[in-house]
Specification:
Helix content: 25-40%
Shape: globular
Mean pLDDT: 82
Strand content: 15-25%
Number of strands: 17
Low-confidence stretches: 62-79, 452-458, 523-528
CATH class of the largest domain: Alpha Beta
CATH architecture of the largest domain: 3-Layer(aba) Sandwich
Number of domains: 3
CATH topology of the largest domain: Rossmann fold
CATH superfamily of the largest domain: Vaccinia Virus protein VP39
């Protein structure tokens, strides 16, 4: 998770390894605790970036927990692409039981219900009691008939009756589990007790514990589950048991809110003699929207030797036991000459459109202009502040959440619906110029008033921000200047993006043998 991702109080409690009452106490006792960014008063939502910084600043989030605290957020606009991909990897079922032991939301079970219908039983354990009834309602809407959704703490015995009895498990586990390394004899640690920082390997074993012989589990895990040194013993035991059958590397930034890569792991509890082969699938170069969401599409991927390789488990049982598909799936070198030519043309065109110098401005003597707060402008009807998943219209001033929110303040040029992670100010154009407002919201004075909380977080209280009180004609002069600057920045960003893609393409060509050095920097287009 990252900027634009929201958490409930229960999510915060899970990340910090405390009860929900502790989170309520922090909100009451610490003035710098992040303010809600959405949701009703009875179940407020908080920005993960702000929560994470506050927890770290107050010694409640360790560096080893940061990656696992950032749970998966699919790039799909409807937040269902990952769930559909997971459910599509389950074997066909006409009856039986599907379990999600970490039902942070109902998306995985709902995707399974959409696929299998009402003849299958859907079982989920929500970590927040308030999520139970909404999950049941949404599962019913997805076509589930037999539903058993309950609440409970991670790794407790709430669903003990299903251990060893499920036909399938499908799950996108939440941030960090609540367990301690002392639980060495927990019946779920079939492949060894996980390290405190190996949340994914704890959830993997928890899911596997529900499978009956012949049952299949499909679960999302972070890249670290395949590489972290502390987890190599568990990975080795999974291979030795023939339990882990597939590791699928998802596209880079498939989960766009996090920098790390993500995998799908498929496990099967052997019903007879295991097959000691691991299928490694590398989709790291795939566009996120092209990730398969049907068995037919997965079958085509598995048959593609450029994407899939079956590796004997013994070949992976070395000192590191790194289960990274891209390391083992060799791809043929691709001739990128046409791509490089296209990118070179794009770079030249972007450079030609770039102004030769920054906008110039006349000198002026600093003067103290009368100021007015956003709250006062709102009361006067000059603007409206919207910060609860607002719709955005052209001309709205958009203020993102997160530490870089000041430099991200700008004016929307197109409409978008139900935006998370932003606040929106809609101006009355007869009273207030939006570009003028965006310019002064970025002012040093407004930056300073947002700094200084005890946790070191940046929190811009929009209603306290102040801008000069000047006539509309003067506002438009400032607005035009701001528009020139942001336009210049956009053009330089386009040049930088074109250059970066051209360099990456050229490096690929040089390192795969499809390009040869020319000995000169004059020729910018390979083959020309």
């Amino acid at each position: 998770m990252a900027s634009g991702t929201e958490l409930t109080a229960a999510d915060i409690a899970r990340i910090a390894g405390v009860g929900r009452a502790a989170v309520s106490n922090w909100r009451r006792r610490h003035a710098d605790f992040p303010q809600p960014v959405g949701g009703p008063a009875t179940s407020p939502m908080f920005a993960l970036d702000e929560v994470e910084r506050w927890l770290a600043a107050n010694g409640r989030l360790h560096a080893s927990d940061v990656e696992t605290a950032r749970g998966p957020v699919p790039a799909d606009p409807e937040s269902g692409l990952l769930a559909r991909a997971l459910a599509s990897l389950l074997p066909a079922m006409s009856a039986g039981t599907v379990v999600d032991p970490a039902c942070a939301d109902e998306s995985c079970l709902a995707a399974a219900a959409t696929r299998f219908g009402a003849k299958v039983r859907y079982v989920g354990q929500c970590l927040d009691p308030d999520e139970v009834e909404p999950a049941r309602t949404r599962l019913a809407a997805a076509g589930a008939g037999d539903v058993d959704v309950v609440s409970g703490l991670p790794f407790d015995d709430t669903l003990a009756g299903y251990l060893g009895r499920a036909d399938a498990v499908v799950s996108n586990p939440p941030p960090t589990p609540t367990f301690t390394p002392d639980d060495a004899f927990d019946h779920r640690w079939e492949f060894g007790p996980p390290n405190r920082g190996d949340a994914a390997l704890a959830w993997i074993q928890a899911g596997y514990a529900y499978l009956k012989p012949g049952g299949t589990a499909v679960m999302a895990v972070p890249f670290s589950a395949a590489t972290r040194a502390s987890g190599r013993r568990i990975r080795a035991e999974l291979l030795r048991a023939g339990a882990l059958t597939h590791v699928i590397g998802l596209p880079d930034r498939f989960l766009r809110s996090v920098a790390t890569a993500w995998h799908i792991w498929i496990l099967r509890r052997p019903a007879d003699r295991p097959t000691y082969t691991l299928r490694l699938v590398d989709l790291s170069g795939y566009p996120p929207e092209d990730v398969p969401v049907s068995q037919k599409e997965w079958k085509a991927v598995f048959a593609d030797v450029a994407l899939t390789r079956d590796v004997p488990s013994i070949e992976l049982l070395d000192e590191e036991v790194m289960l990274v598909p891209s390391v083992h799936v060799a791809t043929e070198a691709r001739d990128v000459t046409p791509d490089y030519r296209r990118l070179a043309r794009r770079y030249r065109d972007a450079t030609a459109a770039l102004p030769r110098q920054l906008p110039t401005f006349a000198g002026a003597v600093p003067t103290d202009l009368p100021l007015v707060s956003i709250a006062d402008l709102a009361r006067a009807g000059a603007l409206e502040v919207r910060d609860r998943r607002p719709d955005v219209e052209p001309g709205d001033v958009v203020i993102p959440y997160g530490p870089d929110r000041f430099d991200g303040i700008g004016v929307a040029t197109e409409a978008s619906v139900d935006q998370r992670g932003v606040s929106v100010i809609r101006c009355d154009p007869d009273q207030l110029d939006p570009y003028f407002l965006a310019c002064f919201l970025r002012s040093e004075a407004n930056r300073r008033q947002a700094v200084g909380t005890l946790g070191g977080t940046y929190r811009l209280d929009l209603r306290r921000a102040r801008v000069p009180r000047v006539p509309l004609a003067e506002q438009r002069r400032y607005g035009d200047a701001f528009r020139q600057l942001t336009g210049f920045a956009a053009k330089t960003a386009e040049v930088a993006a074109a250059a970066d893609q051209a360099v990456r393409t050229a490096v690929y060509g040089l390192t795969t043998g499809t390009f040869a050095p020319t000995g000169t920097s004059d020729n910018m287009t390979a083959g020309e």
